[in-house]
């Protein structure tokens, strides 16, 4: 498997590097339009989605693909890539550099490798998390090839917790940390993975927002909590994931879940 994982990492680095260079030229210059679900999309999203799909077909022809801008049906392939060509399209369209290219690799319905590149900030996160898949290989989580880990700090008013635009009702009650709003679901989670934040919440992320960062967060020692009554993974063959939200809580450590969860769990009930 060693050669396989080296191939996967090199592929993600080359693909996101090539596509990211072009997206940097377009950042803030392309007018967005609204999709049927109200979210924004640009021609750059569609171009990047197409380029990634073509690259996967050439390098990994036996792998399935589920992407934000095209197919939302989870395929029967043992290996499947879940792609968000631009996470943070609103930021991208307004020239704000917090947007990323997210590539998650699943085995039998569960992510085992994640790679997220943020070209505007020259940051690339990746990680490996095999769970009970039976797979072996490299371990850990990394930022620009340096190991990362969640913070061991205790929550306080000098620490950070990330919100999304649909979770601001949390602020109606006192909160144990300072809050930030990032504008990209993947970066929300990855700031917990690298120790910058102690937790975060997302109200309506889709599967392509989660797949890669789910791996990296856990590989870095973090905790992912679904705010639904059902687990996120494994995904089910033939199911359409296009309109299915996954409200979530992330935490730097297990022991802080009991602190954060009572303050955010209403979000899961609201979107279920």
Our estimate of the beta-strand percent is 15-25%
Second rung of CATH, namely the architecture of the largest domain:
2-Layer Sandwich
Q: Output the structural class.
A: alpha+beta
Shape: globular
Radius of gyration: 17 Å
- The SSE order reads HEEHEEHEEEEEEEHEHEEHH
Q: What is the number of E strands?
A: 14
As for the number of domains, it is 2
CA-CA gap between termini: 39 Å
Could you estimate the helical fraction of the residues in percent?
25-40%
Please count the helical segments.
Answer: 7
Placed side by side, the strands forming the largest sheet appear as 3-4-5-6-7-8-9
Regions with pLDDT < 50 over 5+ consecutive residues? none
How is this structure best described in words?
The protein is an alpha+beta fold and 272 residues long. The chain folds into 2 domains: 2-147, Fructose-1,6-Bisphosphatase, subunit A, domain 1 (Fructose-1,6-Bisphosphatase, Chain A, domain 1, 2-Layer Sandwich); 160-271, D-Maltodextrin-Binding Protein, domain 2 (3-Layer(aba) Sandwich). The protein has helices spanning 2-26, 43-59, 89-93, 185-193, 207-219, 257-264, 266-271, and strands spanning 33-34, 40-41, 64-67, 79-87, 100-107, 110-118, 123-128, 140-143, 146-147, 160-163, 178-181, 199-202, 223-226, 248-251. The strands form 3 sheets. The chain has a 7-stranded mixed beta sheet, sandwiched between helices. Strands 11-10-12-14-13 form a 5-stranded mixed beta sheet, with helices on both faces. A hairpin with a 4-residue loop joins strand 6 (110-118) and strand 7 (123-128). The longest helix has 25 residues, at 2-26. It is globular and about 50 Å long. The N and C termini lie far apart (39 Å). The mean pLDDT is 95.
């Amino acid at each position: 498997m060693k050669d396989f994982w080296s191939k996967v990492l090199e592929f993600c680095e080359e693909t996101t590097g090539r596509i990211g260079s072009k997206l940097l030229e377009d950042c803030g210059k392309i007018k967005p339009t609204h999709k049927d679900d109200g979210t924004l999309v640009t021609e750059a999203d569609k171009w990047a989605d197409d380029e990634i799909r073509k690259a996967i077909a050439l390098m990994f022809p036996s792998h399935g693909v589920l992407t934000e801008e095209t197919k939302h049906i989870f395929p029967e392939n043992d290996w499947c890539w879940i792609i968000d060509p631009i996470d943070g399209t609103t930021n991208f369209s307004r020239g704000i550099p917090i947007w990323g290219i997210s590539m998650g690799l699943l085995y039998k319905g569960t992510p085992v490798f994640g790679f997220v590149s943020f070209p505007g900030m020259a940051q690339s996160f990746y990680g490996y998390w095999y769970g009970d898949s039976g797979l072996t290989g490299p371990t850990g989580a990394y930022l620009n090839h340096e190991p990362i880990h969640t913070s061991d700090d205790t929550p306080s008013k000098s620490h950070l917790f990330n919100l999304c635009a649909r979770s601001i009702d949390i602020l109606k009650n006192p909160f144990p940390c300072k809050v930030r709003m990032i504008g990209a679901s993947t970066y929300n989670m990855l700031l917990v993975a690298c120790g910058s934040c102690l937790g975060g919440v997302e109200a309506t992320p889709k599967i392509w927002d989660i797949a890669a960062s789910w791996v990296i967060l856990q590989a870095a020692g973090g905790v992912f909590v679904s705010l639904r009554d059902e687990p996120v993974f494994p995904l089910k063959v033939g199911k359409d994931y296009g309109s299915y939200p996954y409200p979530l809580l992330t935490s730097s450590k297990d022991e802080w879940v009991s602190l954060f969860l009572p303050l955010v769990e209403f979000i899961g009930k609201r979107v279920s």
